[in-house]
Amino acid sequence: MTQDDARRVAMALLSQQSREFETGEWVLANVEEYDTAWAFTYNSRRFIETGEVRDALAGNGALVVPKSGADPWFTWSGADTASQVAMGHSALDR
User: Immunity protein domain: from which residue to which, for each copy (predicted)?
Assistant: First the structure.
């Protein structure tokens, strides 16, 4: 799976789950490539534009899109993304 493919998967899932992605109020902010997956962070468009903490979303973990084509999943924001990708699941799913 390419980064562009993974981005399409991420946007489709996020748009289904949150109206704010459909309206453009929330946007993908960054992408990290790992051996097995792509991890997308997201935030409010306003935060991306202003950098003001009061405009930021809180508690939003990254969306992981496995390169294998397996179902995407969200990381827990209370643990680092890299370790969760290495485990293959959220730190909350023990």
Answer: 5-70
